Amino acid sequence: MKKIHIGFYIAIASLSVLLIIFLATGLWKKFIPAEEEDFIRTRIVTPGETGSISIADQSGHSAWGDNISTKIPLENDEIVIAVLNIESEFSLSEDQFAVYRIASETGPVNITLLSYDNTVREYKRMWSLPAAATRPETISLFSQDLIGDRNSCIIITGMNANNEHTMTILRRNRGQPAQQEYLKIAELQIAGSIVIQETTRTFAYHQGIASGRSHNIVTYGPDPRSANLLDQLETTYSYNPVNTRFEQASVTRIPGSQIEQRRVREILSGRPGVFEDFIDGLWYYISPQGTIDTRRYLYFDPAGKEVVFYGEGSQQVFRWQTSSYTRFGIYIRSQNISITTLMRFINIELESLDRIRVRVDEDVRLKITVSAPWDGSYRRARAAPQNNQTPQIAGAVDALYDSSWGRLQFFDTGEYSITSSGNTRRGRYVFFKVDGNDLLELRPEDNTPSDNRMVYRIENTAGVRILFRVSLGVNGIQDLLEPPVTLTLVES
Prior knowledge:
492 residues; mainly beta; 3 domains; 8-stranded antiparallel β-barrel; 5 helices; 32 strands; 48% strand; elongated
């Protein structure tokens, strides 16, 4: 009996040694079909922004940096700009989308599909289509389920030679031959900005049980009928399942701030360095309630070619790589100095002489959790470039005043109400100081553009407060010459 046990243990040990040799020498690869072998990829391990370890592969994300490679070589005069790998529906291999440009041409970039052919066991080039973008340094390539049917769309964003933002969207047309299986369902270009307006989808969609609602595409462009350079038109495009395309659904006029147009033309002239000088320095985030959040800010350093994001107690530094002037501001491509696969495209638009509107698009090869959203409005942290004084934010108050507007009530929650002739208007307020001046900003609850962001300078005379409408900008505090408003305290 002992001999049997000894023989058993020797056999187990021998098999273990053979298994180790089999795995170490790579002999196991011979037993895997070619298409399955192509599917095996190296996973990349990187520290996440919160200090945890994030494990992800490169599938489904854009390629950046010096190691852009395609499954098969393109033509000699075709220069690859970006690639995107997604799982194929027909094999265990990947489909690869590549954006490229013709070296001898300056026209639109092109996108091509490289797909694995199981019959010949190699990758083949299936088709090529032009996209609207022409400037390689602005290209972003990614996939997203825009329609809600889990059929991911291929999205190419960038800018063209006219400094317009562009977006080209392709979608698989099932049931068609491979050469015709992707169709353009949207191609937009505008002298403003383009965003994907995501809708909330149900728990059943996220669990793979039901379809979801379609996202909308929204463009923001100049209003050709307005003399105010900051007035915009918001155009919404919705997906039409009958025509299988995104079609215009609505147009909304968004009035911009009524500020001095000569200065606006100067800032938006597109001359090198002008807009960079304007945004140089520290900008505080403006919350949806209209209050300044000093815990979140952006710092632009054009001379040092850096953009600093600070929020939720962490600071992220990005290298300012390239920038392009747009109709309303500037478009910056930046790269994280620590995690080089993390790119941010920053679209900055002039909102007033002391405010900017920022939209940030993330473009990552690795699944890195972003700690804070950056889209929104920001206020300059100083009234003028030569003055380094940061605005001082005062606390909330609880007081009741009579005025020409009606009865004005300040609440210690940061809210206010104005009651006149039985009607009540509500909103948020903030008191702050700039260069020793007491200022008040009112932001109505209904966000009416004509009344939005009202800033007043406060003068105290014999116990009466007088409000003078002002604007804040690079030249400091400027009086708008509107009739003053007198506030008389109502004794409780």
